[in-house]
Amino acid sequence: MTWNPEHDVRGPLEVVCDESGSDGENLTGGNTDVFAHGSVSLPVEVAAAYVQEVRDRIRSPATEYKAGHLLREKHRAVLEWLLSPSGPLDGHAHVHLTEKAYFVVNRAVDLLLGDGTEALALYGEDRPAVGAERWRTFLGAANRLLRVRLDGAADGAVDGFFRAVDDLRCARPRTEILERLATTRPRADAYRARLLEGPPLVPVLNPLLPAIVHTVAHWSAGGRTVRVVHDRQNMLTEQRIAWIEEQTVRAGVGFGGMELVQARWDPRVQLADFLAGIARKIASDVLNGHVDPALVALLRPYVGRTSVWGDERSWAVLSPGPVKGVASALSADINFAV
To answer: How far is CA 209 from the centre of its chain?
Structure first.
């Protein structure tokens, strides 16, 4: 079965989404180091036929198929078919990737210096120079500084972060961005103080909301209005969906609203789940130096150019363009006047 999106160009373009790799606010010590947001644009009946073909090829008794089924070596042929130029997703799917460690650095730099784009220089130049242990300590401290849930004393996260910054400064003396970060204690204190008043509408460390904005922007190229159908997520409240709409309006992107559905009842969500899970695993492998050339070549056409990624070596494998680090749609202090 094939389908050409040009067959129906009337009205909003319906895009169906799911994610893979969510670890809540624990971005530097969770189970995954990549977050992936997959999206597909296919009619329900076409998606259902493709999902059934996956089931017929794999022949697992599982009630609901997940990306893990396709990632098993014995089902390699099915995986390659799914991603191939002659497969069901070609031209009808997209995946937005987030390198979690870089996302944390980007959010911290944006909060404290007011410009997240400066994080790319810190991430690219200072990370290898300071040593793996120092860098891991800094990442963990930045994660604790930004997370909504407080661990221990209210000011403990702030103290820990600036100790980690000082440690990096010892390893890389006279580095401009580190020197500037060292002077931002008042902004960090103000951020933590505001968290005590109540959780923000948009958690700084959640990559899902900006990923949806990037996804809508991708599919709206050419001026189409995009209506999103998304797997149910507790994060996607009415207020946050309204925030997504506000962000798309600011970017000049047509957003036609969002509907939340249960994955098992919509085969399009299952295809988006396949893509997100597969992309997360392949991208994570590449990030950690394990490259499967055939799978990377199949995935590359789906990877969004505005993915939030800071590691130049792995991005050169995943995408033909140079690493841009692309700041997420939201500002880290959007909820606060600090």
So the answer is: 9
